[in-house]
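I hope you will forgive my troubling you with a question about protein structure. The matter concerns a single protein, recorded as an amino acid sequence and a row of backbone structure tokens. Please examine both parts with care and let me know of anything in them that strikes you as inconsistent. Here, with my thanks, is the record as I have it:
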Amino acid sequence: MKSIVLLGDGMADEPMEQLGGKTVLEYASTPNMDRIAHDGRIGLVHTVPPGYHPGSDVANLTVFGYDPATCYSGRSPLEAASMGVKLAPEDVAFRLNFVTLTAHYGKLYMEDFSAGHITTAEGAELIATLQAELGGEEFHFYPGVSYRHLLVWKGGRDKMVCVPPHDITDLSIEDHLPKGDGADVLMHLTNSAQMLLSQHPVNTRRENARQLPASSIWLWGQGRAPRMPTMQEKFGIKSGAVISAVDLIRGIGIYAGLEVILVPGATGWIDTNYRGKAQAALDALATHDFVYLHVEAPDEAAHSGSLEDKLTAIEAFDRDVVGPVLEGLQRFDAWRVLLLPDHPTPVALRTHTDKAVPFALYGSGGEFAVKSPASAYNEVEAAKSGLVVAKGHQLMSQLLGC
């Protein structure tokens, strides 16, 4: 049996006046996802357990089949695994965003959580400067992709409250700075980084090109290395693979014992190589039992507050990922598909919520190859089904039949 997860990050949304009261999924043209919902089984699943922040880390752990209560220690340790950074027991990893802060009436505001989607090369150049000037035995800076990077604090503290920068877009940062034991150390490091970045050649070039500067770092998502079984140990799959443009998802895959497959042109943005991801997934299924295919673009568009970009991303996901995968699966004797987002990211809010998301299960035969009354794949049709999976981590067992 071949099993694949098709995950469009943040696809779920709320009804919008601009769309005549429809959600983005209702409004978008998604014939391939609609086929999965109609020919298979559709429902709602809670991917964020009560008491947890609705981050992609918690939600994707749940979709992978892990109960966050048993293994979640923070977002950044998962990203560190993807970047090949091995954490010692005394190490605390932090996500480091390059962000754009703007001064208004004596306060600093979060203008852009991605520093204008700074390029990977520019980010690496900035990280090299931070490491040279601020790094050492206590702190180590590691380059990642675009605006997403890593700080490891040896002997650090991890009980602080740190707010994700995409949660405070256009808001004053004053009430959202780190709080708790060790916050003073992070603020000193951040202020030192701001001074280094203010006159950095990368920002000079970006400002000359009328691009947003990386005016500050923002540290969040801290944690220590988690302990979790592999999917082979947990579910008995022989082998599996993960395909994503972001370190978080690849890191979960590494802890889950999956092969990480890198796709040229996969960016995590609406310009990502959708068809390349689909083909890589089909190629992987030739030698693996399981593939987790993740597309970040809808979430990034929603964080940016762009309805147009979110529609574009969802329709591209349907056309260039879901469609080719459904067609390619026909070469295998037996297969199953799980289609879903990890969490809602409403365009109007520009951040995640913890509401249940629509899922659809479809297969070449058996319990998932049944005609459902659903006419389309969206939040409304999923709610109509009456099927609700309250403990989201149990959904993976249904996909894998274990």
About this structure: The longest helix spans residues 307-328.
